Amino acid sequence: MKSFASSFVVALFKVLSVLPLSVLQFLGRCMGLSLWMGNSRTLKVTQENIALCFPHLTAEQRQALIKQRLTHLGMMVMELPFVWHRPVPQVLATIRHVKGEELITDPLANNQGVLLLAPHIGNWEVVGLYLGQKYPMTSMYQPQANEALDKMVMQARERSGAALVPTNTSGIKAQLKALKKGELVGILPDQTPPKASGEFAPFFNIPALTATLSFNLCQRTGAKVVVAYAQRLPSGGFDLVIEPAPEGIYSADQLTALTALNGAVEQCIAAIPEQYQWEYKRFRRQPEGGKQYYRKK
Question: Tens digits of per-residue pLDDT, 103-130?
Fold first, then answer.
């Protein structure tokens, strides 16, 4: 049954990919509004995260942000058929402006590796597609449980030219090698890692188990660190924004560096809070004896 469902999703994505991006985004807004009006886990987690991270907002402001977020979540989902299946030039044509690309080109021109932090903001698939077709790029990939879905995602992400490596020791070695060669390496900095691979660092003043991978890569290679996201525009396209990471991220003290990493993600969120993945249980793991979140979600 699961195999049939996955095959159906793959086929549906191919069918939907023929629709214009504007139509897919309209369908996504409808999907998001249905989530907002329902009583789903997605809605409940989004409500809790926004209450935790924006305690200064009024109840009305939080509700408005939650509604906006779920609308953007729906659009992100419905954009995937277009981004994954349309020819690369057609997808890249939706990028209106690229800001800060010299933060990548300048170090690479001097044979210095660049570590790209791509938080789950806007449409992160667009970031990987744009940069992967322009620069030698290596990114980690967590295989999907279903073979059909895994094949679709792998093909979609590799078609830009990026090299995908597994989330294990061999993948880390590949990333180290790429950075030492003066290439680009991309990681997602805002996912909860296994406990052995992370340290608790503040994220919106709340302890968040934060992956130490970026710290280790930076310390061992001297890579330049940048942050990037693809902002969804009201016109339907995207702006690709690349910014320098805070200086603290280069600290030899791990906690200082991880705090700076989370601070970099916060700065991106401040620009477009409605486009961040608030439906993700970022605080589900807490220090022993600490407050527990998402108890009934």
Answer: 999 999 999 999 999 999 999 999 999 9
